[in-house]
Amino acid sequence: MGYKAKFRVWRGEGGEGRLEDFTVEVNEGEVVLDVIHRLQATQAPDLAVRWNCKAGKCGSCSMEINGKPRLGCMTRMSTFEESETITVTPLRTFPVIKDLVTDVSFNYQKAREIPSFTPPADVKPGEYRMQQVDVERSQEFRKCIECFMCQNVCHVIRDHEENKPNFAGPRYLMRIAELDMHPYDVAERKESAQEEHGLGYCNITKCCTEVCPEHIKITDNALIPMKERVVDRKYDPLVWLGSKIFKRQR
Amino acid sequence: MTQTTAESAARKQRAQIRVRTLRTDRWWLAPAFTFAGLLLFLIYGLWAIFDKSYFVDPYIAPFSSPCLATSCPEGARLFGLAPFGDWYTLPPGILILGLPGGFRLTCYYYRKAYYRSFWLSPPACAVAEPHGKYTGETRLPLILQNIHRYFFYFAIVIGLILTYDAVLALVHKPAGLGSWILLANAVLILCYTFGCHSCRHITAGRLNHFSRHPLRYKAWTLVSKLNARHQQFAWASLFSVMIADLYVRLVAKGVINFPFA
C-alpha cells in the first residue's frame, strides 16, 4: 500500500545550498534510494545522487538519512513512520560536488599514502604458504566496500577539518592493521601508523564500527589491536627490554 | 603542512548545515545513562573509601580488599599479613583502589564511555562535539592511556584476591548470602579483566602466525569470546562490586541482620 512521504533533501553546489521539501510517493518494499530516484524522475530531474549496485555492495550511495550515515539502497522506508519527515543530506565530512554527491578523493589520497603489501625479498610469488588461521583475522577487513561512512562519521575529521592532513581515518588504519597482521608482510607499519597516519588521534568511540554496513568490528579487531602493537613498539619498556635480551624481532 | 580552520575554504566546501545534528532519535539517552552510571560509581566509591565498616567476619568489602596494614582487623588481613605495618593508618581503600581504578580508567571500553558522556567527544555518532580543537591520545595527558596493560597485570592480582576472599567466605560454616554475592562479583570481575583488549593482545594478538602457537591461539579465541562482551562485563562488574561492597558494609553495620546474611 503506497503513501505520500515527506522528504527534505539537500540541494546545492559546493558548500552552498539548502534543504528543500518534497512530497513523494512511496510503495511497499522500497528503500530510500528508490524514493530519491522517483524524486529525480518526477520532480527534480537535476538532483545529483551517486549510486550503482542497489545491493549494498558497491558503497556508492552513502548519504546521511535523518542525520545518520547510511546506504540509501539498504535503508528500508518501512523503518520510518509514514508521518515522519525524512531528511537526506550528503556526507558531512567531504566537499559537496552537487546535491548528494561528495568529493571523496581525500580517501584515495590516504590510500596512496600506505605502502602496499611487502613480502620478504627471498619469497617469490607462488611460494607463500599460510594456514587459514593465520589469515582469517585480516580477511574480515577485506569485506570493506569502501562506502567511506566510517571516514565520514569519525569525529576526528568530521568535526576538525584541520586534522585531515595528519589522520588516515578508520578505513585506512584498518588497512594498516590488515597488512601488519599479514604473516608475509615485512614492512614497518607500527611506528608509521602512530607517527604518519595518526592512530593516536583515534579515541576509540566506535562510531566507525556503528555505521559499517558490512558489520566489520573496525575498532575492536583492527584499531585497538593496532594500538596495542604500537604500545609494544613505542611505549612498553618491558617489551623493549625483552627484545634486547632475547634478540627478538619486534 | 596545510592548516585549516573551522571557517577555512576547505571546510566551506562541505554542506553548510548549521545544526549540530540532524539525528531524530534519542541519541542523548546512552551518554546520559553512562554519565549517571559512572557518576554513581564515583560517588559511591568516594563514600566507601572513608567508611570504616568494611569487615565483618567472614566478609571483607571489595573496595577495601586487600587490607595490608596492622590497622585492619586481624581477620581482614590478606593471608594474615600486614606488610604496611602500623605506620599506615589511612583507610585501606586509599592504598589499593588506584590499581583497579586505573585499570577501568584506561580500559578501551570505559574510554569510549567517558569520552562520549563526560567529554562529549563526540557525545554520539554524527553529533558535533563542542570542542574547537582535538588532538586525541597523541599527547599528554591522554597518551598515558597506553599504560593500560600494566594496570591489567595489577587487575589480575586484585581479581584473584577478591576470588580468594569469596572462597574464604564460602568455606566458612555456615556460608551466608554474602559469600555468594562476593563470589558472583569475583566471577564478573575476572570475566571483565580477562576479556580486556590488552589481555587479548598479550595472549596471541601480537602474533602474525597463530598456527605456530596453537596454545596461545586457543587462549586468544577464549579471550576474544569474553572480549566480545567486554562492555556488558564492564557494566555488570561495576554494579556487582558496588552491590557486594554495600552488602558487606550493611551487614557490618548491622542494618542487614537476617539469618544466613
TrEMBL record, chain A:
Pathway: Carbohydrate metabolism; tricarboxylic acid cycle. Its cofactor is [4Fe-4S] cluster; [2Fe-2S] cluster; [3Fe-4S] cluster. InterPro entries: 2Fe-2S_ferredoxin-like_sf, 2Fe-2S_ferredoxin-type, 2Fe2S_fd_BS, 4Fe4S_Fe-S-bd, Beta-grasp_dom_sf, Helical_ferredxn, SDH/FRD_Iron-Sulfur, Succ_DH/fum_Rdtase_Fe-S. Pfam families: Fer2_3, Fer4_8. Residues 5-92 form the 2Fe-2S ferredoxin-type domain. Gene3D superfamilies: 3.10.20.30, Alpha-helical ferredoxin (1.10.1060.10). The keyword 4Fe-4S applies. The keyword Nucleus does not apply. Keywords: 2Fe-2S, 4Fe-4S, Iron, Iron-sulfur, Metal-binding, Oxidoreductase. PANTHER family: SUCCINATE DEHYDROGENASE [UBIQUINONE] IRON-SULFUR SUBUNIT, MITOCHONDRIAL, SUCCINATE DEHYDROGENASE IRON-SULFUR PROTEIN. Belongs to the succinate dehydrogenase/fumarate reductase iron-sulfur protein family. This is Succinate dehydrogenase/fumarate reductase iron-sulfur subunit. It comes from Microbispora siamensis.
Automatic annotation (TrEMBL), chain B:
Keywords: Membrane, Transmembrane, Transmembrane helix. The chain crosses the membrane at residues 27-50, 87-110, 150-171, 177-196, 233-252. This is Succinate dehydrogenase. It comes from Microbispora siamensis. The lineage of its organism: Bacteria, Bacillati, Actinomycetota, Actinomycetes, Streptosporangiales.
